[in-house]
Amino acid sequence: MKIGIIGTGNMGRILTEAMLDGNAVSPSSLTVTNRTLGKAYELQKSYQEIHVGDTRETVETSDAIFICVKPHDVYTVIKDIQPYLSKDKCLISITSPINTSQIESVANCSVARIIPSITNRALAGVSLMTFGENCSKQWRDRLWSLFEKISVPLEINEDVTRVSSDIVSCGPAFFSYLAQRFVAAAVKETRIDLETATELTSEMLIGLGELLSKKHYTLPALQEKVCVKGGITGEGIKVLEQELGDVFEHLFQATHLKFEEDLSNTRAHFSQ
Question: How many domains does the chain fold into?
Protein backbone atom coordinates (compact mmCIF):
# COMPACT_ATOMS: atom_id res chain seq x y z
CA MET A 1 0.00 0.00 0.00
CA LYS A 2 1.34 3.40 -1.00
CA ILE A 3 0.71 6.24 1.45
CA GLY A 4 0.51 9.96 0.76
CA ILE A 5 0.74 12.64 3.45
CA ILE A 6 -0.50 16.14 2.65
CA GLY A 7 0.81 18.44 5.37
CA THR A 8 3.97 17.78 7.38
CA GLY A 9 3.28 20.06 10.33
CA ASN A 10 3.19 18.68 13.88
CA MET A 11 0.66 15.88 13.44
CA GLY A 12 1.55 15.08 9.85
CA ARG A 13 5.17 14.61 10.84
CA ILE A 14 4.29 12.61 13.96
CA LEU A 15 2.02 10.32 11.94
CA THR A 16 4.72 9.83 9.29
CA GLU A 17 7.43 9.07 11.83
CA ALA A 18 5.19 6.66 13.74
CA MET A 19 4.27 4.70 10.62
CA LEU A 20 7.89 4.46 9.54
CA ASP A 21 9.37 3.66 12.96
CA GLY A 22 6.59 1.13 13.59
CA ASN A 23 7.33 -0.56 10.25
CA ALA A 24 3.71 0.01 9.27
CA VAL A 25 4.92 1.20 5.86
CA SER A 26 8.26 1.23 4.08
CA PRO A 27 9.90 4.61 3.40
CA SER A 28 9.91 3.97 -0.35
CA SER A 29 6.10 3.57 -0.34
CA LEU A 30 5.55 6.99 1.27
CA THR A 31 5.16 10.33 -0.52
CA VAL A 32 4.88 13.56 1.46
CA THR A 33 4.10 17.12 0.52
CA ASN A 34 3.59 20.42 2.25
CA ARG A 35 2.54 23.91 1.28
CA THR A 36 6.12 24.90 2.16
CA LEU A 37 8.10 22.05 0.58
CA GLY A 38 11.08 22.81 2.81
CA LYS A 39 9.26 21.14 5.71
CA ALA A 40 8.77 17.99 3.66
CA TYR A 41 12.45 17.94 2.70
CA GLU A 42 13.37 18.31 6.38
CA LEU A 43 11.49 15.06 7.00
CA GLN A 44 13.30 13.43 4.12
CA LYS A 45 16.63 14.14 5.82
CA SER A 46 15.68 11.64 8.54
CA TYR A 47 14.09 9.11 6.15
CA GLN A 48 15.98 9.42 2.89
CA GLU A 49 13.93 6.86 0.95
CA ILE A 50 10.63 8.72 1.26
CA HIS A 51 9.50 10.71 -1.75
CA VAL A 52 8.76 14.43 -1.69
CA GLY A 53 6.40 15.69 -4.37
CA ASP A 54 3.79 18.27 -5.13
CA THR A 55 0.16 17.69 -4.16
CA ARG A 56 -0.82 16.17 -7.50
CA GLU A 57 2.05 13.69 -7.48
CA THR A 58 1.33 12.75 -3.86
CA VAL A 59 -2.29 11.92 -4.66
CA GLU A 60 -1.70 10.21 -7.99
CA THR A 61 1.01 7.89 -6.68
CA SER A 62 -0.75 6.96 -3.42
CA ASP A 63 -3.50 4.52 -2.48
CA ALA A 64 -4.31 6.14 0.90
CA ILE A 65 -4.03 9.91 1.20
CA PHE A 66 -3.90 11.55 4.63
CA ILE A 67 -4.92 15.21 4.85
CA CYS A 68 -2.98 16.63 7.79
CA VAL A 69 -3.78 20.34 7.52
CA LYS A 70 -5.75 22.75 9.68
CA PRO A 71 -9.56 22.34 9.62
CA HIS A 72 -10.20 25.54 7.66
CA ASP A 73 -7.82 24.35 4.91
CA VAL A 74 -9.28 20.85 4.44
CA TYR A 75 -12.04 21.82 2.01
CA THR A 76 -9.63 23.72 -0.25
CA VAL A 77 -7.19 20.81 -0.28
CA ILE A 78 -9.92 18.31 -1.21
CA LYS A 79 -11.23 20.53 -4.00
CA ASP A 80 -7.68 20.91 -5.34
CA ILE A 81 -7.06 17.15 -5.41
CA GLN A 82 -10.55 16.16 -6.61
CA PRO A 83 -9.45 15.58 -10.24
CA TYR A 84 -6.79 13.08 -9.14
CA LEU A 85 -8.95 10.96 -6.86
CA SER A 86 -10.45 7.66 -8.02
CA LYS A 87 -12.80 5.08 -6.54
CA ASP A 88 -9.96 2.72 -5.62
CA LYS A 89 -8.28 5.31 -3.36
CA CYS A 90 -9.04 6.25 0.23
CA LEU A 91 -9.00 9.79 1.59
CA ILE A 92 -8.38 10.20 5.33
CA SER A 93 -8.77 13.39 7.35
CA ILE A 94 -7.20 13.65 10.82
CA THR A 95 -9.22 16.63 12.03
CA SER A 96 -12.23 16.29 14.34
CA PRO A 97 -14.53 19.14 13.17
CA ILE A 98 -14.96 17.62 9.70
CA ASN A 99 -17.03 14.46 9.52
CA THR A 100 -16.90 11.71 6.94
CA SER A 101 -20.23 12.72 5.37
CA GLN A 102 -18.84 16.15 4.56
CA ILE A 103 -15.75 14.66 2.93
CA GLU A 104 -17.84 12.15 0.99
CA SER A 105 -19.88 15.02 -0.40
CA VAL A 106 -16.82 16.26 -2.32
CA ALA A 107 -14.62 13.15 -2.68
CA ASN A 108 -15.48 10.30 -5.02
CA CYS A 109 -13.60 7.56 -3.15
CA SER A 110 -13.55 5.70 0.15
CA VAL A 111 -13.36 8.10 3.09
CA ALA A 112 -12.31 7.83 6.73
CA ARG A 113 -11.48 10.12 9.62
CA ILE A 114 -8.66 8.98 11.87
CA ILE A 115 -7.72 11.20 14.81
CA PRO A 116 -4.21 10.34 15.98
CA SER A 117 -2.45 11.20 19.22
CA ILE A 118 1.08 12.35 19.95
CA THR A 119 1.36 9.11 21.95
CA ASN A 120 1.30 7.24 18.62
CA ARG A 121 4.85 8.54 18.14
CA ALA A 122 5.85 6.02 20.85
CA LEU A 123 3.74 3.37 19.07
CA ALA A 124 1.24 3.65 21.91
CA GLY A 125 -2.08 5.29 22.75
CA VAL A 126 -5.31 5.26 20.79
CA SER A 127 -6.24 6.24 17.23
CA LEU A 128 -9.89 7.27 16.87
CA MET A 129 -11.49 5.91 13.72
CA THR A 130 -14.69 6.79 11.89
CA PHE A 131 -15.45 5.33 8.46
CA GLY A 132 -17.55 6.92 5.78
CA GLU A 133 -20.81 5.32 4.76
CA ASN A 134 -19.31 4.36 1.40
CA CYS A 135 -15.93 3.26 2.72
CA SER A 136 -15.27 -0.24 1.44
CA LYS A 137 -14.68 -3.14 3.81
CA GLN A 138 -11.29 -3.62 2.18
CA TRP A 139 -10.24 -0.11 3.14
CA ARG A 140 -11.66 -0.44 6.65
CA ASP A 141 -9.57 -3.57 7.18
CA ARG A 142 -6.43 -2.07 5.62
CA LEU A 143 -6.59 1.08 7.73
CA TRP A 144 -7.32 -0.88 10.89
CA SER A 145 -4.33 -3.13 10.23
CA LEU A 146 -2.13 -0.12 9.50
CA PHE A 147 -2.99 1.67 12.74
CA GLU A 148 -2.73 -1.48 14.85
CA LYS A 149 1.02 -1.24 14.23
CA ILE A 150 1.32 2.20 15.82
CA SER A 151 -1.59 2.39 18.28
CA VAL A 152 -4.77 0.87 19.62
CA PRO A 153 -7.40 1.69 16.97
CA LEU A 154 -10.88 2.41 18.29
CA GLU A 155 -13.97 3.07 16.18
CA ILE A 156 -16.12 5.84 17.65
CA ASN A 157 -19.56 7.31 17.02
CA GLU A 158 -19.89 10.84 15.71
CA ASP A 159 -21.56 12.13 18.90
CA VAL A 160 -18.49 11.42 21.08
CA THR A 161 -15.86 12.67 18.63
CA ARG A 162 -14.95 15.80 20.59
CA VAL A 163 -14.73 14.28 24.07
CA SER A 164 -12.84 11.26 22.72
CA SER A 165 -10.37 13.57 21.02
CA ASP A 166 -10.08 15.65 24.20
CA ILE A 167 -9.01 12.54 26.09
CA VAL A 168 -6.84 10.87 23.45
CA SER A 169 -5.38 13.72 21.44
CA CYS A 170 -5.50 16.75 23.78
CA GLY A 171 -5.07 14.73 26.98
CA PRO A 172 -1.26 14.46 26.76
CA ALA A 173 -1.00 18.27 26.66
CA PHE A 174 -3.46 18.68 29.54
CA PHE A 175 -1.62 16.22 31.76
CA SER A 176 1.76 17.59 30.71
CA TYR A 177 0.59 21.00 31.94
CA LEU A 178 -0.59 19.52 35.24
CA ALA A 179 2.72 17.71 35.65
CA GLN A 180 4.64 20.94 35.05
CA ARG A 181 2.54 22.73 37.67
CA PHE A 182 3.19 19.80 40.04
CA VAL A 183 6.95 20.16 39.47
CA ALA A 184 6.91 23.95 39.81
CA ALA A 185 5.06 23.72 43.14
CA ALA A 186 7.55 21.17 44.47
CA VAL A 187 10.43 23.49 43.58
CA LYS A 188 8.69 26.52 45.06
CA GLU A 189 7.67 24.92 48.35
CA THR A 190 10.74 22.74 49.07
CA ARG A 191 14.48 22.63 48.54
CA ILE A 192 14.34 20.29 45.54
CA ASP A 193 15.80 21.64 42.29
CA LEU A 194 13.92 21.81 38.99
CA GLU A 195 15.99 19.15 37.20
CA THR A 196 15.56 16.57 39.96
CA ALA A 197 11.85 17.27 40.41
CA THR A 198 11.32 16.98 36.65
CA GLU A 199 13.20 13.68 36.44
CA LEU A 200 11.33 12.20 39.40
CA THR A 201 7.97 13.28 38.00
CA SER A 202 8.74 11.98 34.52
CA GLU A 203 9.83 8.58 35.84
CA MET A 204 6.78 8.45 38.10
CA LEU A 205 4.50 9.03 35.11
CA ILE A 206 6.30 6.36 33.09
CA GLY A 207 5.87 3.93 35.98
CA LEU A 208 2.22 4.86 36.34
CA GLY A 209 1.69 4.16 32.65
CA GLU A 210 3.39 0.77 32.99
CA LEU A 211 1.18 -0.19 35.92
CA LEU A 212 -1.92 0.62 33.90
CA SER A 213 -0.57 -0.94 30.70
CA LYS A 214 0.20 -4.22 32.44
CA LYS A 215 -3.19 -4.06 34.17
CA HIS A 216 -1.74 -4.43 37.65
CA TYR A 217 -4.24 -1.83 38.87
CA THR A 218 -7.19 0.22 37.66
CA LEU A 219 -7.09 3.95 38.36
CA PRO A 220 -9.35 3.70 41.45
CA ALA A 221 -7.45 0.63 42.75
CA LEU A 222 -4.11 2.38 42.30
CA GLN A 223 -5.28 5.38 44.32
CA GLU A 224 -6.61 3.08 47.03
CA LYS A 225 -3.32 1.15 47.26
CA VAL A 226 -1.22 4.30 47.68
CA CYS A 227 -3.65 6.28 49.80
CA VAL A 228 -3.31 4.66 53.22
CA LYS A 229 -5.97 5.85 55.67
CA GLY A 230 -4.56 8.60 57.86
CA GLY A 231 -1.38 8.82 55.78
CA ILE A 232 0.38 11.61 53.89
CA THR A 233 -1.11 10.75 50.50
CA GLY A 234 -4.58 11.10 51.98
CA GLU A 235 -3.81 14.63 53.10
CA GLY A 236 -2.73 15.50 49.57
CA ILE A 237 -5.90 13.96 48.11
CA LYS A 238 -7.98 16.12 50.47
CA VAL A 239 -6.37 19.24 49.01
CA LEU A 240 -7.06 18.06 45.46
CA GLU A 241 -10.69 17.32 46.33
CA GLN A 242 -11.12 20.77 47.90
CA GLU A 243 -9.33 22.86 45.28
CA LEU A 244 -9.87 21.19 41.92
CA GLY A 245 -13.58 21.86 42.09
CA ASP A 246 -15.18 21.71 38.63
CA VAL A 247 -11.97 22.44 36.72
CA PHE A 248 -12.29 19.42 34.44
CA GLU A 249 -15.97 20.08 33.80
CA HIS A 250 -14.99 23.60 32.75
CA LEU A 251 -12.21 22.16 30.57
CA PHE A 252 -14.64 20.00 28.58
CA GLN A 253 -17.11 22.88 28.35
CA ALA A 254 -14.38 25.09 26.85
CA THR A 255 -13.19 22.49 24.32
CA HIS A 256 -16.76 21.78 23.21
CA LEU A 257 -17.48 25.51 22.83
CA LYS A 258 -14.45 25.90 20.56
CA PHE A 259 -15.49 22.73 18.71
CA GLU A 260 -18.89 24.23 17.95
CA GLU A 261 -17.15 27.29 16.53
CA ASP A 262 -14.95 25.07 14.33
CA LEU A 263 -17.99 23.04 13.24
CA SER A 264 -19.77 26.22 12.18
CA ASN A 265 -16.78 27.34 10.09
CA THR A 266 -16.33 23.98 8.38
CA ARG A 267 -20.07 23.69 7.64
CA ALA A 268 -19.82 27.01 5.81
CA HIS A 269 -17.03 25.59 3.63
CA PHE A 270 -18.75 22.34 2.77
CA SER A 271 -22.11 23.97 2.05
CA GLN A 272 -20.60 26.04 -0.75
Answer: 2
